[in-house]
């Protein structure tokens, strides 16, 4: 028993030190391992399997909207990166350069892609000639590199996995429609699959993507009251098209510039899953994203028939469509329970010699630890209902947490006090002046998160300067 206790005790309680709790979970749940390259992480099978599920499900959603996948080069020539001024200014400080090929110094430096707008522009310039070539709806799943000074697993790493969609359209309206469409794909995925409620809105000019006309974002609230930008979608207008010369001939045979978008979601989202749903026993995975949904754990498995029944249950559950495993290792049941909880596997089925005699199994939910004793023939139906209920309850709990951590402030004094004492989002009115945004960031540490699509009229004046307000905005401390 001493050993089992140690396994659980090894996590720092959330309330004591949230950052340490997070680090403990990613290590103990065996999601990542640190590599010998500073700032780069290794995704272990438990972590990569979550990303695989994100990829499969999001990819299917993208394809429903007409998106096609491609694979682009890893390198960008310096001259290409330089073409759009705001873009290069935004990314230059965190770009990694390749200067040599073998022993030869390259004539032109190559950067390791921090994002691939410039490469897609270079491609579209060559393959788009006529209005018949549009739209182009391309996406790639890949890794990118941004030279970060401080890193944390999933949240900020030098190399990370993501998808980047890049589209080209004939009109500004189509590009805008696509930008919003993809943001909504992300938002629906977060809410329906990951059980993470998000606020949808537009970034301020200060916070928007380098080179974008406008950036839309989904913002989620972590358990500690900090915000996490969880996916972004950018409308470039024709800015990149003008810089790269991407033109098509319209129906009247006149040359027009295309309008472009890009949108991305990364392994950062796994950080959000951990920090929205986890507890002091470890990870809690929403059933719809969990690589293993049910773990069957035989108790006193050396006793006749126990392991056989566990394996039989597994087969039945797999046939019914549930991702199921049996832990028939020689670890003690207590140890197995701890491991299953640490890894966030949504449902545990316990079966021992007495259960076998009584023709029943014990089903335990990971999130609430609700326990149900169920006759064998009802296991599939009850497991299905419990997983469905768990998925719904997780979303509701996360929603309640989000809603109870949204505060409102009318004047600067109450704003400052709220930032200092109540972690969460603060909604206010804003004049739209970047000076106020900068002042708030410098003096309180809170940044503008987004101007929500659903606007409320909270008052007539800016929370910071008292001048007439233009828009309602969310603020918060963020990862
Ligand atoms: Zn102001």
Key phrases:
Rossmann fold; alpha+beta; Translation Initiation Factor IF3; eleven-stranded mixed beta sheet; disordered N terminus; five-stranded mixed beta sheet; globular; 23 strands; BirA Bifunctional Protein, domain 2; 3 domains; 479 residues; 15 helices; binds zinc ion
Describe this structure in words.
- Mean pLDDT is 95; it is low at 1-5.
- This protein has 15 helices and 23 strands.
- It has an eleven-stranded mixed beta sheet, sandwiched between helices. Strands 16-15-17-18-19 form a five-stranded mixed beta sheet, with helices on both faces.
- By secondary structure, the chain is an alpha+beta fold.
- Helix content is 36%, strand content 27%.
- Strand 10 (214-221) and strand 11 form a beta hairpin.
- The protein binds zinc ion.
- Zinc ion (ZN) binds at residues 431, 433, 436, 462, 464-465, 467.
- Zinc ion (ZN) is lined by residues 431, 433, 436, 462, 464-465, 467.
């Amino acid at each position: 028993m001493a050993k089992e206790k140690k396994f659980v005790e090894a996590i720092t309680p959330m309330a004591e030190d949230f950052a340490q709790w997070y680090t403990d979970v990613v290590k103990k749940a065996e999601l990542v391992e640190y590599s010998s390259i500073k700032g780069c992480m290794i995704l272990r099978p438990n972590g990569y399997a979550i990303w695989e599920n994100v990829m499969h499900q999001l990819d299917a959603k993208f394809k429903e909207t007409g998106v096609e996948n491609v694979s682009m080069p890893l390198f960008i020539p310096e001259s290409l990166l330089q073409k759009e001024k705001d873009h290069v200014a935004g990314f230059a400080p965190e770009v990694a350069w390749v200067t040599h090929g073998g022993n030869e110094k390259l004539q032109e430096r190559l950067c390791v892609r921090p994002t691939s707008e410039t490469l897609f522009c270079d491609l579209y310039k060559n393959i788009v000639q006529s209005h018949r070539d549009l739209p182009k709806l391309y996406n790639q799943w890949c890794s990118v590199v941004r030279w970060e000074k401080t890193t944390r697993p999933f949240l900020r790493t030098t190399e990370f996995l993501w998808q980047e969609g890049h589209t080209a359209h004939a009109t500004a309206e189509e590009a805008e429609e696509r930008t919003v469409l993809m943001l909504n794909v992300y938002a629906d995925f977060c809410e329906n699959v990951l059980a993470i409620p998000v606020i949808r809105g537009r970034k301020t000019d200060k916070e928007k993507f380098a080179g974008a006309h406008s950036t839309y974002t989904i913002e989620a609230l972590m358990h500690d009251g900090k915000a996490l930008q969880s996916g972004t979608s950018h409308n470039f207008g024709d800015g990149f098209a003008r810089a790269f010369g991407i033109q098509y001939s319209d129906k009247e045979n006149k040359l027009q510039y295309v309008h472009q978008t890009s949108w991305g979601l990364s392994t950062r989202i796994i950080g959000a899953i951990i920090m929205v749903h986890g507890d002091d026993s470890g990870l809690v995975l929403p059933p719809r994203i969990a690589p293993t949904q049910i773990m069957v754990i035989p108790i006193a498995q050396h006793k006749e028939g126990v392991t056989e029944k566990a394996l039989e249950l597994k087969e039945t559950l797999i046939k019914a469509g549930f991702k199921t495993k049996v832990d028939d290792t020689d670890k003690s049941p207590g140890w197995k329970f701890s491991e299953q909880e640490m890894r966030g596997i949504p449902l545990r089925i316990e079966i021992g010699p007495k259960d076998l005699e009584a023709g029943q199994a014990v089903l335990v939910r990971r999130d609430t630890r609700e326990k149900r004793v169920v006759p064998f023939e009802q296991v599939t139906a009850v497991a299905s209902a419990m997983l469905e209920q768990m998925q719904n309850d997780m979303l509701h709990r996360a929603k309640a947490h989000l809603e109870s951590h949204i505060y409102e402030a009318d004047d600067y004094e109450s704003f400052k006090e709220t930032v200092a004492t109540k972690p969460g989002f603060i909604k206010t009115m804003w004049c739209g002046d970047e000076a106020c945004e900068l002042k708030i960031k410098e003096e309180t540490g809170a940044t503008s998160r987004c101007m929500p699509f659903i606007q409320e009229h909270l008052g007539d004046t800016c929370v910071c300067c008292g001048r007439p307000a233009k828009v309602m905005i969310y603020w918060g401390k963020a990862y």
